[in-house]
Amino acid sequence: MAIRQRKWFWKGQERKAWVLEYRDGAGKRRLKTFRTKRDAIDYGATARVDIKHGTHVADAESLTVRAAGMLWLATERS
Q1: Which residues contact 8 (CB under 8 A, 6 or more apart)?
Q2: Distance between CA atoms of 46 and 73, rounded to whole angstroms?
Q3: 17 conformational bin, left if phi > 0, alpha if psi -120 to 50, beta if neither
Q4: What is the mean pLDDT of the chain?
Q5: Fewer CB within 10 Å: N-end or C-end of the chain?
Q6: DSSP 22-78
Q7: Global pTM?
Q8: What sign does the CA torsion over 23, 26, 28, 31 have?
Q9: Residues 8-23: pLDDT tens digits?
């Protein structure tokens, strides 16, 4: 896992964000952006434990509310 600060200019003002880069359980590279370094560190610690236990699901891989509802309805009718 790596945490770095990203800087850019928007409308003439400098903006900053902290980026956490890590690999999920399948080895796929993931990036997540945070406002503070502390938030990035905390999420990284939680993600590391979840990956170790095999329970981590990246935001991009999680179900949408619609898909979860459709899945729930399909199992209720069975």
Answers
A1: 14, 15
A2: 32
A3: beta
A4: 91
A5: C
A6: EE-TTS-EEEEEESSHHHHHHHHHHHHHHHHHT----GGGSPPHHHHHHHHHHHHH-
A7: 0.75
A8: negative
A9: 999 999 999 999 999 9
